[in-house]
Amino acid sequence: MRAPVLLPLTAAVLAAHAWLLWELPAWSNAAPIPDPARNAPAFTTRSIAPPPPAAPPEPVAKPPAPRPAPRLAPRPAPRPAPRPRPAPVSAAPLPVEAAVEPAAQPPAELPTEPAAEIADAAASELAQQTPPATPVLEPATVPPPPEPQAPAPPASTAPPAPPRPETLQGVQLVAPDGQQLPADTALPVKLPAPARLAFDVAGQAQRFEYSASAELLWQHDGQSYQVRQQIKAFLIGTRAQTSRGRITAAGLVPQRFTDQSRREKSAEFDFAAEQARFTPAAPPAPIGPGAQDRISVFLQLSALLAAAPERYATGSEITFTTVGSNDAERWTFRVHETETLELPLGALPALRLERLPRHAGDQQATLWLAPSLGYLPARIRLTQANGDFADLRLQAHAAP
């Protein structure tokens, strides 16, 4: 009874094992069932190449050295499924079909992240750990330094304009207390009547004393004038000085002055150009309004004092630009007391005026103006720097 029952059961078991072995390749993709009886399952290990290095960044201008990027360890492959342990079979021979070798197990699946994604992840982590590269700057074009230039002097340090020559000034009148009359003050004049004055002359030249005669001829018609002074001396010769010009409300305005001894010298007055020009040639001299020559200055003083004698108190000073035969300079006369002169003509009261020399070589001049003669000169004394002098004393007075 037992043998017939076991035979079909054994056949069924063998048929089940045969079918299982035949269908095993189709189940290789199914999830394996771990064998709980084995504590150390077998592993199949395959090497995976590391991801390709990230492309180097564009070259920059000397960036700081980046920190080395950490190498990313490859993700472990999933644990392969253990090969199923075949069920024990009986010692009975297997059929030919059952002896076929099972198909090779497919290779383990690669990580789900491809190499490109791994490289991007590595580059992203490297970018987070590496400081941003310094931007490349184009070299700036530096202009050449400007050439040093001398600084312009400030306006406040500009040199002042040269002062105008004092010979351009007009007539100046200073009172005894030192107060100066404004330059634009019009001084009245009163010309003396025409006259011919004769003088006796006592003088010295080159330490030689001499006696001579002199004449002063004063003429005018109210519009123009001429004054001539001439000295004649034995063994010395003749010297003549002449002044010609116009008459205005301000008095005498010279146009030409001549000084003749051995040769003639002259000065031409050009008030419009403010110049006096000389012959023989000499540098022009600047002149201003009221300028006189060395003869007309005596007659201009006569006209000023005759017009307003009270204005010229003792101690007053009158200054003119006075032109000679080759130069121009300022002459200042100081008014002194009235004196009584003993002259060849007789006793005659006269007001003394003295020229104040400004330099050691200036000619000294003293003249006495007689009020009874319309302030015409009654005596003239001229002294040179070397001591030579000529003293003219009035001997006669007459109409021209």
Structure commentary:
This protein has a domain at 166-398: outer membrane lipoprotein receptor (LolB), chain A, CATH 2.50.20. With 400 residues, it is mainly beta. The termini are far apart. The chain has a 16-stranded mixed beta sheet that branches. Helix content is 12%, strand content 34%.
Outline the secondary-structure elements.
Layout: H1 2-23, H2 115-129, E1 172-174, E2 195-205, E3 208-220, E4 224-233, E5 237-248, E6 251-260, E7 264-270, E8 275-279, E9 282-286, E10 292-293, H3 296-307, E11 317-323, E12 328-343, E13 346-355, E14 364-370, E15 376-383, E16 389-398
Parallel strand pairs: 10-11
Antiparallel strand pairs: 1-11, 2-3, 2-16, 3-4, 4-5, 5-6, 6-7, 7-8, 8-9, 11-12, 12-13, 13-14, 14-15, 15-16
Brief overview, please?
With 400 residues, the chain is mainly β. It contains three helices and 16 strands.
End-to-end separation: 210 Å
Structural class: mainly beta
Major sheet characteristics? 16 strands, mixed
Q: Unreliable stretches, pLDDT < 50, 5 or more residues?
A: 25-38, 40-45, 89-119, 129-137
The proportion of residues in beta strands is 25-35%
Sum up the overall morphology in one term: rod-shaped
CATH architectural designation of the domain at 166-398: Clam
Q: Could you tell me the number of beta strands? A: 16
Please work out how many helical segments DSSP would assign: 3
Kindly provide the radius of gyration, computed on alpha-carbon positions and rounded to a whole number of angstroms: 70 Å
CATH level-3 fold name of the domain at 166-398: outer membrane lipoprotein receptor (LolB), chain A
- Could you report the average pLDDT, rounded to the nearest whole number? 78
Helix content range: 10-25%
CATH class of the domain at 166-398: Mainly Beta
